[in-house]
Amino acid sequence: MKSHKIQQAPIPMRTVGPINISGHILNEKVSVPLTTYETPLWPSVGRGARVSMLVEEGIKTTVIDERMSRSVLLEADDAYEAFKALESIKARQDDLNQVVATTSRFAKLIDMHSQIVANLIYLRLEFTTGDASGHNMVTNAADKLIPWILHEYPQLRYSSISANYCSDKKATAVNGILGRGKYVISEILIPRALCERRLKTTPEKVVDLNIKKNLIGTMIAGGLRSANAHYANMLLAFYLATGQDAANIIEGSQGIVHAEVRDGDLYFSCTLPNLIVGSVGNGKGIDFVEQNLQALGCKDSREPGANARRLAAICAATVLCGELSLMAAQTNPGELMESHLKMER
Questions:
Q1: Mind listing the pLDDT tens digit for each residue in 267-322?
Q2: Does the residue 155 lie in any domain?
Q3: Opening angle at CA 38, ends 61 and 30, nearest 5
Q4: d(C-alpha 254, C-alpha 259), whole Å
Q5: Which of 110, 125, 239, 276 sits at 20 to 30 Å (Cα–Cα) from 38?
Q6: Catalytic one of 131, 245, 251, 323
Q7: What distance in Å separates the CA atoms of residue 291 and residue 282, rounded to the nearest whole number?
Q8: Same domain flag for 94 and 29
Q9: Which domain range does residue 145 map to?
């Protein structure tokens, strides 16, 4: 077979910020690289970043949970045989982790969830994966667990290494419920005067639009565990700049914006339950990616998982900047299109 040389596909990249970020992961002002063809995204995120710099606490980020999942599909002769085997397997997590330990220094099985459909066992295995996003790590672990399970439970048969109950790169409900990747919340409290001066709107208008657009609008569209304006824009630009698997913006963009008026000020938050990011692994060896991760301070910690958590917190703050700016713009007739016409034509 003839080998084909790997070519580069250049996409415009610009550094935006700094963004003022606080929380239990980092308390710093960070400039963020964003790679995109949608050039208005840079000034939009930049406007949110400037607002964060004028708020003492900036954007507060909290990493709620982290895990990577792989579901396997096994078969039995009937539902009762499947049920008996599954109950036994789930009671042997320590034994399973001994197998997992042979595949990686960092992978650890932390939970299992399952569904039985007829004679089919859908077993969702959930792992911590250190600083890697963990796609390959958990698949490798699952690949070694399956022969062990089939040896211990000869009444079962192999069907697939991936059963779609993971659920990778698909818009499903299960990831938001059980977790896949980093579960991160970013939030900011913006004084009314700052909201009016820098965002050209009021807290009441942003809250009203969030209800009518993000919540009701998404509901009538049939959205799935999602209520936001354009998470995917910031996620794609951030993912491409930092060497992530860009297809994971599918589940990553499932998240909820919540806004309130608090004593006349604007509380604005972005919940992202499926942020799949890593600071090591596939896609990270490219020069510009390594430089970007270094600049973000996501290659410095020796604590397993700390670099990836920092990356996730920065990503969530970036998403908030862009989401806040767009929501503010859409409270004013004509502002959104005017900016696109000015920058893209």
A1: 999 999 999 999 998 878 888 999 999 999 999 888 989 999 999 999 999 999 99
A2: yes
A3: 30
A4: 17
A5: 276
A6: 245
A7: 15
A8: no
A9: 67-160
276 and 252 in contact (C-beta within 8 Å)? yes
pLDDT of 97 higher than 90? yes
- In the residue annotation, 170 being an active-site residue is answered as no
Catalytically annotated residue among 108, 169, 213, 258: 169
pLDDT digits 0-9 by tens, 31-42: 999 999 999 999
135 is catalytic: no
Q: 28, 38, 196, 265: which is the annotated catalytic residue?
A: 38
Closest-CA residue to 141 (of 189, 99, 113): 99
**Active-site residue flag, 84:** no
**What is the rounded CA–CA span in Å between residue 242 and residue 137?**
19
Same domain, 35 and 156: no
Percent of the chain with pLDDT over 90: 89
Q: Are 76 and 158 in contact (CB under 8 A)?
A: no
Query: Which of 259, 315, 64, 277 is closest to 176 using CA atoms?
Result: 64
Q: What residues contact 61, with CB distance under 8 A and at least 6 apart?
A: 21, 22, 23, 25, 26, 184, 185, 186, 313, 314, 316, 317
The H or E element containing residue 236 is helix 231-241
| Cα 142 to the center of its chain, rounded Å | 22
Pairing of strands 265-275, 59-75: unpaired
Contact 253, 238 (CB under 8 A): no
Burial of residue 148 (number of CB atoms within 10 Å: 0-12, 13-18, 19+): middle
CATH number of 289's domain: 3.90.770.10
Residue in 24, 84, 170, 340 annotated catalytic: 340
The pLDDT of residue 337 is above 70: no
If one compares 342 and 275, the residue with the highest pLDDT of the two is 275
Would you state the structure tokens that stand for residue 291, as one six-digit string? 């430089």
CA distances from 184 to 53, 246, 327 (A): 21, 18, 20
Q: What is the pLDDT of residue 157?
A: 98
Residues 29 and 149 in one domain: no
Return the structure tokens found at 128.
Answer: 């911590």
Query: Whole-prediction pTM value?
Result: 0.94
Q: Could you confirm whether 4 is annotated as catalytic?
A: no
